[in-house]
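Self-study notes.
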Amino acid sequence: MDVIEFSMKNKFLIEMRERGYLSQCTDLSRLIDICDKKPITGYIGFDCTANSLHVGSLLQIMILKLMQKHGHQPIVLLGGGTTLIGDPSGKDTTRKILEKKEINKNILSIKKVFNKILNTSNKKTKPIFVNNADWLLKLNYIKFLRDVGRHFTINKMLTFDSVKLRLEREQSLSYMEFNYMILQAYDFYQLFKDQKCILQIGGSDQWGNIINGVDLIRRILKKEAFGITSPLITLASGAKMGKTEKGAIWLNEKLLSSYDYWQFWRNTNDSDVKKFLYYFTDIEVSKIQNIIKDEKDINNLKILLANEATRLLHGKAASLKAEKTAKEIFKDRVLSKNLPEILIKKVDLDNGINILDFLSENRILASKSEARRAIINKGIKIDDVVVSDLTTIIEAKNFKNKSLKISFGKKKHYLIKIT
């Protein structure tokens, strides 16, 4: 991306650049001119393959939030249509094919996260939610090929990373997936017509798909549209953002407690924490700069990051509660009543529950094999006593005052209660 002098009026794109959100833009100087003159509408699309997004999608949500801050209106496209196919970008194999009913349930669940993080009260900037199934499922195949398909060449489509990398690894790419980029381009075209949406934003792996949409609008409507990509985030460890050895960091509290979410941010690698303060909090850029300059204790920066990131998703009360719980556990060495709770019925303990089954069924660990490895590596404790026997049975007699604590490693703790 060329270095371009930003207009002082154009605070949205200035802050995008300052926070590190801005990777590429199809025509940055022209987009600056337009943003200087009037508010714009831009969109980001999200897969609906699960009933929750994970933290890997959070950067995109933060960009939508930034749009609102500067008077622009975001569109949240929930891909009820494209999820029926699956985006091949970054994938070695075809995604699992989901039924419409399951996708619609996922959409309802995912939408709740946006309503938590984004401002829904301002009429001029509140998010517009759209489902591309509304237009994609109505398409006439022959008409679509004549009107839209003729603007795409196989030669060009084969050059995009989502296709090229898959073929280079000799992984099969179905014709169904090959069509995904055309449907995404058509989404942009449809939103341009219906919502006057001139901007599509996505991760840098979406660059080719975004360019397709910009070109399609230019070819059919003879109008200008724009695309922006943000950097793909990887942790200092090299792992993809949103995935850990312990499983996905979900944004839905039913899948991951606010306490575990807080702990994820508190455990950020030292080399990531300053960058993540810009990415994943809404603290003003100038204030972050001063904090980083003045604060010498990296752990205080991690606590600030954990507090602010958790506040955005779960609210201030949950953030303060998570910090208090962590302090009680790690500094005061007491059993906090604010730990994530797992409730079990007394009748389920009548015959006892094998420790491997208990850990996997209650999502303390993702599977029995992971639970087995954790026990072998002395990573599981019950009431601070290391579990060394894979055949350990959890029974009612293990509970004191109808509760016990199970710990995985030093930082993951659960309060198990009998109901």
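Second protein, same conventions, sequence then structure:
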Amino acid sequence: MTVSVLRTADAWWVATPTGAAKIDTAATTTAELLADRPAIERASSSPGTVPVDTLALVSPVTAPCRVVAQMTNFRSHVTDSGMNPDTIPLTFFRKTSGSISGPFDDIIKPKHVQFLDYEVEIGIVFGRSVPVGTQITESNIADYVAGIVVTNDVSARDLQLPKTQFYEAKSYPTFTPVGPALVLLDADELKRFTDLRLQLFVNGELRQDMVVGTDMIYRPAAALAALTGFQRLDAGDLLLTGTPAGTALSAPPKPVEIIGSLLPPATKWKLFFKRQADNPKYLHDGDVVELSVATDDGTLDLGAQRTVVRYAQ
């Protein structure tokens, strides 16, 4: 049975059928908490609870930590980006853990960013150290993965594309909302990863809606088998596993793309973003972004985020 761990500024909690039970632990980081499983188990059966909605929840993944993300890992998103999903390579990028924020915190758009986008993703949280060279397969992945969380890979597209790099464009404070719950899984529960449905709404409008098993290209075991070939991971680190179609950004029509490829880069991007200015899907001041990840039968439920976009003054 899954265990949903919650966090407030001063305590850790377990969600139970009657409310949230406080975990009696000295842990201050996600890694330390995951090492204190007896305390989590005791809280899971505790009769003393408080209503979850009375808690001011923050991210259950603490910083500093490594934040790694998979690029273009859903077939629909690859196609929407103008690429061929049958030939897309397995690739990663990094985000700073300073971008992590809570599931109900505002997303702050910096003054110099014009085109702010969203990406609902499932985050994998590691429960133990994974040295470079560790062999991860479908049969042992649960030995390393502690649980999963809802994440939003917020992106400044006007910085990402012209600079052809992701780190700055995705690393500003509040650009990785995480939570509300870190859902701890056993090996059998992790096998249902492919049944998870990702959904994202902006102002009540459904923008992204996809089941992992029908769309994800490189699933966790394959991704980690590649990642651990060069990247050490530790308990509490976070891997974002990609997003489906429905983001504000999409590839231009083919004739426009061909013409653009013949132009100098500065001219190409100036024209591209001039067209993007007419795209209403980018996030605006006051927009409400809601994300959820769960199986359709509700057996696995990572909870729902609700964040509001604010433009920096």
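Instructor comment on the second fold: The longest helix spans residues 265-276.
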